[in-house]
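## retry 2 of 3
previous attempt timed out at serialization; input unchanged, resubmitting
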Amino acid sequence: MPSNIPTLPIAILGGGITGLTAAWHLQRAGAPVVVFEALPTPGGAIGSTRHDGWLQEAGPNSLLEGSTEVATFIDAIGLGSRRLYAADSAKNRYVVRGGKLVPMPASPVGFLKTKLFSFRAKLGLLGEPFRARSAADGAESVAQFVERRLGREFLDYAVNPFVGGVYAGDPRQLSVRYAFPKLHALEQEHGSLLRGALKRRNTSGGPKGRIFSFPEGLAELPRALAKSLGGSMRLSSRVNAIRRTEGHWAVDTECRGENRTGKFSAVICALPADALTSLRFEGVTGAERLAALREIPHPAVVSIFTGFRREDVAHPLDGFGLLVPEVEQRRILGSLFSSTLFPGRAPPGHVAITTFIGGVRSPQLAQLDDAALKQVVREELGELLGVRGDPAFFNVRRWPRAIPQYTLGYARFKAIFEAVESSAPGLYIGGNARDGISLANCIASGRRLAVAAGATSEQR
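## retry succeeded, writing output
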């Protein structure tokens, strides 16, 4: 064991994918860890449920293998052989325009032929490499950035629906620098999105953005990590307070009515923003500033899983799913063709569709009761996909505060994270409110936290 491996364990607050990943890296390096999770199961927002042949995802539906780090990680935790890549039949990405589903072009030739964008919009794209870049530290929204570089039509029919699908957000409110840092970096480094994309294309030699899951859903990922941690997991354990003392950290927890205090060499906070603001800090200068994280918007989102007989759906469902631009004025953000993406999501002769409602765009719709939501989904999918009749399976998952929004002004939250950490050596903060909202971002966040704690496998 390296000399810098602590004798006291490292406390990891939060058993979602960020905390579990950090714990796995630390344990692999030989560092003792204890993971505290308030829920009775690990995984946080990740949850997969099988019922009568249907497999529903409560939160994320897939993982992007867009880097060698993700691919290597999945292999290392023993899930490499269980990867299910998205089916070839799921290559189409549909966007609604004029009430019809139009496939998003996937090649230069497809772009020239597509009916998604007008000839004028396509022609305007030729000028993108010659447009001036913005100031590196400028506060620009995603909408302002895209309209400036690509034009209003690309904002309305490409970026707006994409932002609705990823963030359930509004591109007019999100900061391009923090919500889409790679997009911001392309302009800053290359002066053009098109030039930057061409230069970066496959230069890493890694996986080319393939989407995957597992036979029993994404929940296999946190289950595998939790199993590898063994007795280091503390489920149904809520952390109430942490205290910085002379030579160690004290962590107060409550498990099934019993209060406990443990000693730790360091503390990793991998909690959602709301949970972090309710945590009591003692002996940490400036920790009261974390209360401001409550101001990070988290719009409500409802995920509706519906199953239909194959003959009751007119559309071939030959794609990943559909996204709805705000200008189309519909009541859904989009739908995933779940049973097209991966096998085993629906019984034989049936199809599964997951639809999302609410977000920044329509928060009032997320408050509808289940019966009203079923009616909305039936009507919307009826018009867009030719669905008829009642669903053979119907289930609703509600997320009252779903996805943190990296809005304009997010820099002040970033400064708070950094200030609190710098005032308390041995305290490390990460997760989707700081390091990005995607599953891949959370895996990277966990690894970053493990590196920061100083005992990763690279140091063995």
